[in-house]
UniProtKB/TrEMBL annotation:
One of its GO terms (molecular function) is rRNA (guanine-N2-)-methyltransferase activity. Signal peptide: none annotated. It comes from Armatimonas rosea. The lineage of its organism: Bacteria, Bacillati, Armatimonadota, Armatimonadia, Armatimonadales. This is SAM-dependent methyltransferase. It comes from the Bacteria. PANTHER family: RIBOSOMAL RNA SMALL SUBUNIT METHYLTRANSFERASE J. Pfam families: SAM_MT.
């Protein structure tokens, strides 16, 4: 039983909302706390070891910590990037992936699923985009959000619905059991070892997300299960890609991020 996390609800939950909370608490193996009319400081006070709480609300899941930081689902920069490609502008992630309709993509570091949603738009109904999120409670927030969040862009809504979260936990747990050549592209976007200014949009995710560094074993496994290529995103001035022997880079000359491309295992 986890003691660092609890599940609770919004004030005065009905039976359906309480049943959802029970299911999430079971899945996360953590306590289920009744809320009544209490504020979260009072709830946290009853569980001194809990550092964060998953609040089940009628319209979304909300993660909060003792400092008041909140994490909830939204498409992040996915809407802007989709708008750009619809206008005919290039996107360096799609260029690095050489993504085509009907392709299959495994996103090993799902986060807000903005890039996964972008990929889902490109691959269409004939393709598939699967995601892994290392932090289970973050993954639950994103998994539900992908299915219920509504924007004013029908194409983005459809793309989000096509993303499927296939694993809640470290990506190596999934990669080690995945069949050879299962996906066309395997993608990693770990937290950068060198921060960039645009990471302000990721502050809530950084507070709750999985910060384990990318490993050589993960890339070896990814090359085994990818049919065409493995793509890794990082800060332009990071030495991380060179450490893994990645020399093929895709990105604008003045951009803060680049996408490294690894060939697959033969």
């Amino acid at each position: 039983m986890r003691s660092d996390l609890l599940v609770t609800t919004s004030h005065k939950p009905d039976a359906l909302l309480w049943a959802r909370a029970e299911a999430y608490a079971t899945q996360l193996a953590c306590p289920l706390a009744s809320r009544h009319a209490e504020g979260m400081p009072v709830v946290f006070g009853r569980y001194p070891d809990a550092q964060r709480a998953l609040i089940v609300q009628s319209h979304r899941l909300l993660l909060v910590d003792r400092a008041g930081t909140q994490f909830f689902f939204h498409p992040n920069l996915g809407a802007m990037r989709l708008r750009n490609i619809l206008r005919g502008q290039p996107d360096y992630l799609l260029e690095a992936m050489q993504l085509q309709p009907g392709d299959s993509v495994l996103d090993c570091t799902l986060g807000y699923a903005g890039e996964a949603s972008l990929c889902a738009h490109v691959v269409g109904d004939a393709g598939e985009v699967h995601g892994i999120e290392g932090n289970p409670e973050v993954g639950l927030v994103v998994r539900e959000g992908l299915q219920v969040f509504v924007t004013d862009k029908a194409l983005l809504n459809a793309a989000m619905r096509r993303v499927r979260v296939v694993h809640l936990g470290h990506h190596l747990e999934f990669l080690r059991t995945c069949p050879d050549k299962r996906y066309d592209i395997v993608y990693f976007d770990p937290f950068f070892d060198v921060p960039v200014d645009t990471e302000e949009t990721l502050v809530p995710l950084k507070a709750f997300g999985e910060h384990a560094p990318l490993t050589a074993e993960a890339l070896t496994q990814a090359r085994r299960i990818a049919r065409r290529r493995v793509v890794v995103k990082t800060a332009r001035w990071s030495e991380q890609l060179a450490e893994f022997g990645i020399t093929e880079l895709v990105g604008g000359k003045s951009g803060r991020v680049v996408y490294g491309v690894l060939p697959v295992a033969v």
